[in-house]
Write a structure and sequence with these properties.
Blueprint lengths: L2 E3 L15 H4 E7 L4 E5 L4 H4 L1 E7 L6 E5 L7 E3 L14 E3 L2 E5 L11 E8 L5 E7 L5 E4 L6 E8 L7 E4 L11 E4 L7 E2 L1 H4 L8 E4 L3 H4 L4 E8 L16 E7 L8 E3 L4 E8 L8 E4 L28 E4 L2 E4 L4 H4 L4 E8 L13 E5 L10 E3 L6 E6 L6 E4 L5 E4 L7 E2 L12 E3 L2 H4 L5 E6 L6 E7 L5 E4 L8 E6 L7 E4 L6 E4 L7 E2 L1 H4 L8 E4 L3 H4 L4 E7 L6 E7 L5 E4 L8 E6 L7 E4 L9 E5 L7 E3 L2 E4 L2 E4 L3 H4 L4 E7 L1
Length: 648
Amino acid sequence: MTASKLVLNAASGVGGAGLDVDEVFNTFLYDGTHGSLTVNTGLDLSGEGGLTWIKGRTINEYHNLFDTVRGNGYTLRSTETNVSDGPFFNQAFTSTGFSLNSSDSQVNSNQHNYVSWSFRKAPKFFDIVTYTGTSVNRTVSHNLGSVPGMIIIKCTSGTGNWRVYHRGVNGGSSPEDYVLLLNGTNEQYDSDSFFNDTAPTSTEFTVGGDDDVNDHGDTYVAYLFAHNDGDGGFGPDADKDIIKCGSYTGNGSTNGPEINLGFEPQWLLVKNVNNNSSDWLLFDIMRGWGMGDADIILEPNTVNADATSQNWVDITSTGFQITNANGQINGSPNTHIYMAIRRGPLTVPDDATKVFVTNIEGTGDTAMTNSWPISFVPDLNINTKHTGASRYLMSRLAYTRQIAVDGNNAEGSSLGNKIFTDVSTQLNVSTGWWAATADIISFTWKRAPSYLDTVYYTGTGSNRTISHNLGAVPEMMWVKRRSSSENWTVYHSGLGNTKYLTLDDDRQESTGSTAWNDTTPTESVFTLGTHDRVNSSGQTYAAFLFGTVEGISKVGSYTGNGGTQTIDCGFSSGSRFIMIKITGTTGSWHIWNSVRGIVTGSDPYLRLDESNGEFSSDIIDPDNSGFKVNSDALVNANGYTYIFYAIA
């Protein structure tokens, strides 16, 4: 037996912590440049080894797979039986991702958009093995560090199909007896010539004598994907799962199976294994995996560009639910296999500039195109005009839709706006929405543990709990009914679980159990009562959960003293964003930001609950620990309680 492998580092970080999702997997969207391009995925592919898979989103072109074992520029195409070989496209792996120097339409034409999926080698996540065939049954060693959940094999020295082992084939009963085809729609079939009816182990897998996996003298590459089952070992406490390979049985209904992964996914591959005409379907949150909208899919077995014709599947905080009767994803009573990868990050942020930014038109964007490069992948955005306009909120999980924060209308279309798609590190506010104008102001958040989470759910009309992934007790929650008109409802720890506020107007807090069922949220769930605002049967909702992170964000309250006082948020360089609302009486939600000015003297501010332009007054002042409030009733009336949210 001969086998060539790259030795993997231990799946641990500094101080024994496990690796984060963002250290081993990345989805990156980019515009082709027709020349040199460097992609920063944050993954050390040149040092640790791995795989980068590139597909043109707006063109019918090949899926190109590059791996570090075969070397820079050597590509395989998941739709093809032949070997593309290489090197091609002047592709190279780097310590932060990969680079290209090509004008080829497969990977880098300036006329098209592209997606790359990168998998870093790491125990209990992903491994790559190469070997030479013998034509007789044999074992091949690997370094995955766990039993593989899925194995994809391709001959690299000649023509051959892409062969797939998956632990969920045949409903998980003796899956080693069966084989699948990645480059076709074929259903599973029983044959011992591929995996020799032998289950893989944590150290090796077995191949039979078929030419596609073991022809004498031919060379092969195998991509091994793990299945975590409470043993993943990822995250700061080395106790998180990040990849699952499983199966479900279709029911042929738009209310399809709900799969509990134990985490919220960001990437999903699905195949009906009992149907000879079912494509492999690939979803990810970067290209657009909407809640109730048409999902953007790619098919590894075809050259087709992005397709957005149907709502296939919805993301939940603990997995996904099938929402389509189409036989490819929900054939009854067929078995469907899947591979799902967890959304990251798993670590609490340590730099506020990596999770929040304010942009205004004209700053670094003199052409007034309403687009800005940003240093992180955005998840939540509120944008408006500082001269006056509605305050529109957009979330990556509802990527084509917006909700006005200053009104109670149902969620609406964003007029073709793709604020969270096309380019990973750029924010695009469609000129078809606002038109090219110099008065846009935009606030953007990234989801992160203890800092921000978003949850979408359907109401039941009965008291209930909703799972979330904040990883800490939410101190502020904004809840909005998406499917029809209703006010925004706010929970804030400064008021407790018996009261609620309205985000879209200035009314004082209300008291009643029908919002939060008089129950304080926990690190894993929040509780809803029966109020139509938060839990009407059959209605759809969005919830945005905010928390305090030391030195990064602060959710809190204070009592006004009628003079001047410092609000200590635990920051070291002051606040870049501040929101304050008086309680016990009417008062707007006032917001300040450092880009427009948080200075000693007069500061411009907006009211989140109305569409007016900026006001200006000396109401607050900067302070390194947080901010100061002056003797103005909007922020410091004697004896009144104020709630606030600040970001460093």
